[in-house]
TrEMBL record:
PROSITE patterns: G_TRME
Name of protein: TrmE-type G domain-containing protein
Keywords annotated in UniProt: GTP-binding, Nucleotide-binding, tRNA processing
Gene Ontology MF, one: GTP binding
GO biological process: tRNA methylation; tRNA wobble uridine modification
tRNA processing is among the record's keywords: yes
Subcellular location: Mitochondrion
Pfam families named in the record: MMR_HSR1, MnmE_helical, TrmE_N
Natural source organism: Dentipellis fragilis
Protein family membership: Belongs to the TRAFAC class TrmE-Era-EngA-EngB-Septin-like GTPase superfamily. TrmE GTPase family.
Length: 564
């Protein structure tokens, strides 16, 4: 008795009814009688589907048993096929709404898989009779159509249909797109009809893109770039994601991997053909020289101050300071709306409030925190602890102080609260608020004195209530952020940050470790050296999702005339 999981479809049907394996002649009789039973039920779409499966797999059913003949020859054979339900693995055709749900001008329902044309045949009615008679429509051409329920012939909507013939489609499969009016009732009715088709199933999250990856349309860096492009909220994020989705990141990593494989091919040639005249002694020196250049290139890519990750996910900025200094007012100013509650009562903000903002074209995740002070209030003390943790984990911290409350009476010395002093570093940005309460000349003197006392170059003065100095602060703060992470340089050069995900960095660091291990080995340890290079190539290959040991052989035969 064969394992059920290894049987083709026809054998699987009989195996479900406890049928043993028989001879080839018995199988032919089974298949013929099954065809007869199926043709009787051909008036339904489900029976037509199973009939095509039997036709495809009849040549593979060479091991059915005599008991199969008796079972399928009975009048109940058609009932057997009608009662069977295809599993998700067998239903390769998937569908989903590809546009956001809700009221809009157009909604797009995408269908991809081997039976996409069958869906079109059953649900689409075009005005042209000639086009209606064609089972294979003209690809990549939008056609006006009526979308109908195949069971009742009720018209669900008047829309457009387009067919993308595989492999020249996003998923590399046959794809049909239905362009509908985006109303909830219309979308629901079309998806309901699709769910009743026995050979279709709803797509899983990201399944269309996964099929594009499995079909070779995209690699992992392009998949990530496509996701980042959809999520992009700023111009910097859009440019970075578009570059990755277009294959620029893949090209760089493929180039690195190709050079590692070249080193490996040189070592493999020395191991396998070292005693032949066709392989020179200098190949090992060339391998180590190439490995050293690769190491320098990887170190250069990795020492980027996480610019790529920051561009993609955003700079984490924490606003902190004493109560009533203007932290929540600053958040509202940056957000251009009343995002936080502002009152004259100290301790109004008790928890962390985060917003994703675009500051000077940069994605910034701004966190407003509780005022830092000693308190006996249990809730407020929890907020103060959370504020301190947020400051420690942030990329950038911005201290907001009330300038009139910070200056010591009768002097220009700053009186920074003791609870805040340990949190100030040379990288901290400082904003003095409420400068409208002091003379302008005094404000300028205090600002210069604060730079010397706090040893902090980036200090601004403003009045968030009267908007004095807010424009200067915003432009200066944006430029300071860009300079800190070399983002201006990244935007103006032809080689912006390459690493945009932590996964990229992890695999590239692993590859660098193996490459450095290769360079540390003596040249007579070729077997171990080749193994380190193989691990390095695998680590880089994991970034783009391409790992193939046959690549080493391809490089060897292309670069060396071994056979002559």
């Amino acid at each position: 008795m064969l394992a059920v999981s290894s049987l083709p479809r026809v054998q699987l049907l009989c195996a479900r009814h406890a049928v043993n394996v028989g001879t080839s002649s018995q199988v032919n009789r089974v298949v013929n009688r099954c065809r007869t039973a199926l043709s009787i039920q051909a008036h339904t779409s489900r029976t037509r589907r199973f009939a095509s499966l039997v036709n495809r797999d009849s040549s593979a059913a060479a091991q059915a048993s005599e008991a199969e003949t008796s079972n399928c020859a009975t009048g109940s054979s058609s009932t057997v096929f009608n009662d069977l339900v295809l599993s998700d693995a067998q239903r390769r055709t998937i569908y989903a709404l590809s546009t956001p749900p809700g009221k809009a001008g157009v909604a797009v329902v995408r269908i991809s898989g081997p039976d996409a044309l069958e869906v079109r045949l059953q649900m689409v009615r075009t005005p042209s009779k000639a086009a209606r008679r064609k089972r294979n429509p003209e690809p990549w051409r939008l056609e006006r159509c009526s979308i109908v329920d195949p069971d009742s012939n009720e018209v669900l909507d008047d829309g457009l249909v387009v067919f993308f013939k595989g492999p020249k489609s996003f998923t590399t499969e046959d794809v049909v797109e239905l362009h509908l009016h985006s109303g909830r009732a219309i979308i629901s009715s079309v998806l309901t009809v699709l769910s009743r088709l026995p050979f279709c199933r709803p797509a899983e999250l990201g399944e269309f893109t996964r099929r594009a990856f499995e079909g070779g349309r995209l690699d992992l860096t392009q998949v990530e770039g496509l996701k980042d492009l959809i999520d992009a909220e700023t111009e910097v994020q859009r440019k970075s994601a578009l570059r990755a989705a277009g294959g620029a990141t893949r090209a760089v990593f493929d180039g690195l991997r190709g050079e590692i494989l070249m080193c490996l091919s040189l070592c493999e040639a020395a191991i396998d053909f070292g005693e032949e005249d066709s392989v020179e002694d200098s190949v090992l020196v060339k391998a180590w020289q190439l490995g050293e250049k690769l190491r320098e290139r990887m170190v250069s890519i990795l020492t980027d101050d996480r610019r790529g990750e920051i561009l993609r996910s955003g700079v984490r900025l924490t606003i902190f300071g004493p109560p009533n200094a203007g932290k929540s007012s600053l958040l509202n100013f940056l957000a251009q709306r009343e995002a936080a509650i502002v009152t004259h009562i100290p301790g109004t903000t008790r928890d962390i409030l985060e917003l994703s903002l675009d500051i000077g074209g940069l994605p910034v995740i701004v966190a407003d925190t509780a005022g830092l002070r000693k308190t006996t209030d249990v809730v407020e003390s929890i907020g103060v602890d959370r504020a301190k943790k947020a400051i420690e984990s942030s990329d950038v911290s911005l201290l907001v102080l009330s300038l009139p409350d910070t200056v010591k009476p009768g002097s220009e010395e700053l009186n920074v609260p003791p609870s805040i002093q340990p949190l100030i570093t040379p990288e901290t940005f400082v904003l003095f608020n409420k400068v409208d309460l002091l003379p302008e000349a005094t404000v300028q003197r205090l600002r210069e004195h604060a730079k010397k006392q706090l040893q902090i170059p980036n200090i601004w003065t403003t009045s968030l209530a009267s908007k004095i100095g807010t424009g200067e602060f915003l432009s200066g703060f944006s430029q300071a952020l860009q300079e800190r992470y070399n983002l201006l340089e990244a935007q103006n050069t032809s080689e912006p940050p390459l690493i945009t995900h932590a996964r990229h960095r992890k695999h590239l660091e692993t590859a660098l470790l193996h490459l450095e291990a290769f360079l540390a080995l003596p040249m007579d340890e070729l077997v171990f050296a080749a193994e380190e290079l193989r691990y390095a190539a695998q680590a880089v290959g994991k970034i783009s999702g391409v790992i193939d040991s046959e690549d080493v052989l391809d490089v060897i035969f292309r670069e060396f005339c071994i056979g002559k």
